[in-house]
Amino acid sequence: MSKNRIKFICSNCGYESLRWVGKCPSCDSWNSFSEEIVEDTKTKRAKALRKSEVHELDFSETKIENRLPTNIKEFDRVLGGGLIPGSVILIGGDPGIGKSTLVLQAADKINGKVLYVSGEESINQLSLRAKRLNVKSKGILLLAETDLSNILDSIKEQSPEVIIIDSIQTMSHPDFENAPGTVTQIRECTVRLMQTAKLTGCSIFIVGHVTKEGYIAGPKVLEHIVDTVLQFEGEKNYSYRILRGQKNRFGSTNEIGIFEMHEEGLVEVKNPSEIFLNERTDNITGSTITSSMEGTRPILLEVQALVTPSHYGNPQRVATGFDYRRLSILLAVLEKRAKLRLSSANVFLNMAGGIKIDEPAVDLAVCCAIASSVMDKPANNTTVLIGEVGLGGEIRGVGHLDKRIQEAEKLGFQKVLVPKISKLPKNSKIKIYPIADINEAIDRTIKSE
Ligand SMILES: Nc1ncnc2c1ncn2[C@@H]1O[C@H](COP(=O)(O)OP(=O)(O)O)[C@@H](O)[C@H]1O
Ligand SMILES: [Mg+2]
Ligand SMILES: [Zn+2]
């Protein structure tokens, strides 16, 4: 006898409604509701019934730092040093970005038994990829399966240390009548995998596709269930890929891992600055270099601005890789403090290489790139610009100045502009100019040529 009912669930945020609604009252997305069968809560409760155990706080068996490294440095950095036993990691990203490649390469390098479950590819396809990626390890078990109860049985049988589920959208549990990829299936499968991880101490990678809206695996509910959410991203026109933490119960979310996609798989990028600078052309207007911290690493990158007169009523402002509101603020500061006429100009701003930056230390480079374009004079191309710009046009201090300066020096730059208030590093070979305000910076980088 079934006590199940029909409900409508938002495929984006998991909001439940008894009627179909066009716009989600919770997350405001349109046409995101789909009909799903939901089990009566009483039956659910009965299933969940089991005896719970209470423990005394005891450090003698604490194993939290017993991490299993993937032995891919860029990957481990983002994980916070390796896999915590019993943890579940969701890896999201656009189709084709390289999620399966990344997890398969990790499976190869991990020192332990790995079960790779694919619901998307056949064993033959998986083996072909493994061959192309030059996978050497014999310790990888492959399973082409989409039925989660069968998968859980295999896990029990094999007791692997690491499990890969590729992808969660293809999985379904027979207890639920919903189709694979629905909110209920995705959520219930993830909850069961999470229970397995906690019970057995194995670590589980769950691969998920990002929907058009950019949410991992569709329902945002997943992000709350798992321990760690990583996003694998890249730009269509570039071969590099960035692995970024969005949530991490066991580490910082500031670190990024950088890879390059090659025929034979993902290759770690040891010196990111070189990639982000390598397409730079000398002596063009609107281009500056800054040093941005990505986690604990400084990365030098080019900021590009293009300012053109607007012939229509509303000037266009487009920011790629940079916060749009922050750009508006900086434009207002430049207008008021540096007397640049920008209110009726189109402004296009781009972080070259397609990287996304959200730290204020790049403000100075953004401002000088815009000024260079407005003034139609190239900025000095051997200078690196570091500093936050305040509303008064003053240059404010930034963190990790030493590391940023070191990176500029390492890559052969001759001058660096830094906030005046900073404590300066000793014995640097690079020339350091402490700068108090935006006008001083413009004078030094653009006018002095
Ligand atoms: N034969 C090949 N030679 C070179 N690169 C390939 C080849 N096959 C796939 N790739 C690269 O791998 C990417 C697909 O990676 P994959 O791990 O399957 O992505 P995902 O699992 O995220 O959908 C492709 O976009 C392409 O860049
Ligand atoms: Mg894949
Ligand atoms: Zn919603």
Ordered list of secondary-structure elements with their pairings:
Blueprint: E1 5-10, E2 16-17, E3 33-38, H1 41-48, H2 73-79, E4 88-93, H3 99-109, E5 114-118, H4 123-132, E6 140-144, H5 148-158, E7 162-166, H6 183-200, E8 203-209, H7 221-225, E9 228-234, E10 240-248, E11 256-262, E12 265-268, H8 272-277, E13 287-294, E14 297-309, E15 317-320, H9 324-337, E16 345-351, H10 363-375, E17 383-385, E18 388-389, E19 395-396, H11 401-410, E20 415-419, E21 431-435, H12 438-447
Parallel strand pairs: 4-8, 4-9, 5-6, 5-7, 7-8, 13-17, 15-16, 17-20, 20-21
Antiparallel strand pairs: 1-2, 1-3, 9-10, 10-11, 11-12, 13-14, 14-16, 18-19
Helix pairs in contact: 9-10, 10-12
The structure holds adenosine-5'-diphosphate, magnesium ion (MG) and zinc ion (ZN).
Residues 99-100, 120, 166 line the site of magnesium ion.
